[in-house]
Amino acid sequence: MSEHVVVIGAVALGPKAACRYKRIRQDARVTLIDRDEIFSYGGCGIPYFVSGDVSEANQLRTTAFHMVRDEPFFNDIKGVEVLSSTEATKIDRENKQVHITNLKTGEKSVLDYDQLVIGTGATPRKLGLPGEELENVFYVGNMHDAEKIKEGITKGQYGKAVVVGAGFIGLEMAEAFSDMWGIETTVVEIFDQILPRMCSPVLAKMGQKHMEEEGVSFKLGQTVSRIEGDGKVERVITSDGEVEADIVIISAGVIPNDKLARECGLECSERGGIMVDETMRTTDPLIFSGGDCAIIKNAVDGSPLFLPMGSMANRQGRVIGGNLAGRKETFPAAAGSWCVKIFERAMSGTGMSLGAAKQAGFDAISVMLIMADRAHFYPEKDMMTLEMVVDKATRRVLGIQGISAGGDALVGRINAVAAIMKYQPTIEDVSNLEVAYSPPFASAMDVLNAIANMADNAINGMNHGHGPDIFAEYWDNRESGEYCFLDVREKADAEPFLEKYPEHWHNIPQGEIPKRYEELPKDKKLVLVCNTGGRSYEAQIMLDALGFEEVHNTQGGMAVIKAYGVDI
């Protein structure tokens, strides 16, 4: 008798596991169950369907060969039986059975299994707000929500939108409303930055400023108390007032669907999610799990990691499919790599941000660099801002994040570091990381190599300074007389600031410092500035050697100061 594998959940992980297993074991029977009638789709593409970049909803369900992944596709092409609109209600591990209910007819039945896969995904986090039931309040949890949102947009029903949550989906939905459709959009976030815990407040502020320039408004550090309207949403009440709205998107994270696993006695995390080992097995050797309902290992510190991403689910599904067939495949610990497009910028990262690293117990610092993403003399280039997080004692690279107009170039750099995170790379590993070089694509000393060198200099005490946030604090307190702002660029670059702030802004080009350093006060903090932080670093080295004790280099220079939004 052939083996029967049952797979619960058919969005990302489930279909990949089922099809991989069936390719290896053509003689086996595979049954794929999903409670929805629409399954096997790219959920991460929903914001781009809403924006219009993806014109038809079915495009999120098609293969690269334009075949719709529906029941006939899986039955005829993949040899996998699909039970859509069917809910798995119970797992009986003792008898190796799954209890199911047909949601259209109400008919109940039982499926026997030899091995089982749980790929039940995650559910949008409900906030329990008064007014959540109003028309035009959405969670963007499935294709049905996406189609309703798009229908309302194309009918011109929405003039003002409120997005609750400034994570990936929240920012992507805000861009979709504002950019393509011109809908007045406000993002409300309980934390005081966008992409909380994913990147530093500095990078977050740079991303926020760019989105504000494109017309999106933000209310950070605020909570939503209720949603009001007469049948349809009309306004959102926040801790700081109210915002008019014709549509509300609640994007406050997701909760892993682990109910079936818990009820049948599989080990689950206290915070939610099914525990699996490196083979993606649960605590029952005949049951596998992965995707948005599973907990894996963090490559940085070994802690449990919940990483609900379609890319993870697909790779894990392939591993599960192989192991169902008797192979011994493993899925490595993950660093949590991410990227998000926000209008004309991209933000991306891997590993831990500085705040997350400190919270995890590391004695961490970060350095920030802005540099061209290809040879400085090449006519077409973008400036890339990177922030690297390192552990001072071990010199381990704990994470790297960035923002750039050159999205592909940025993601390429982040991916290069992401690929080695499971090996616990040190500063030297990135400093000497081999990257393909040609002036149209990179610098001879690539931006990745350069930021690792900068981290080395910082740990060795050679490069000591601050980012634009600390510069802003110093600048706001310039009347205190505690600071001397020294512009080390050529006089032509410094002239506008010398004229505007004659009492506070000073200029000695970096090359003239050995001859003119006596003009500088030794009883004040010297705050050094150049275009990108390179010349100010050289100036800082000179002044340190000349006996100045309070020399502070502004990492990223004027480029980052402006991108951060300092009013100067």
TrEMBL record:
Keyword Flavoprotein carried by entry: yes
Entry keyword annotation includes Flavoprotein: yes
Key words, A-Z: FAD, Flavoprotein, Oxidoreductase, Redox-active center
Necessary cofactors: FAD
Top-rank lineage group of the source organism: Bacteria
Limits of the Rhodanese domain: 479-566
Gene Ontology MF terms in the entry: oxidoreductase activity
Pfam families: Pyr_redox_2, Pyr_redox_dim, Rhodanese
Family the entry assigns: Belongs to the class-III pyridine nucleotide-disulfide oxidoreductase family.
Name of the protein described by the UniProt record: Pyridine nucleotide-disulphide oxidoreductase dimerisation region
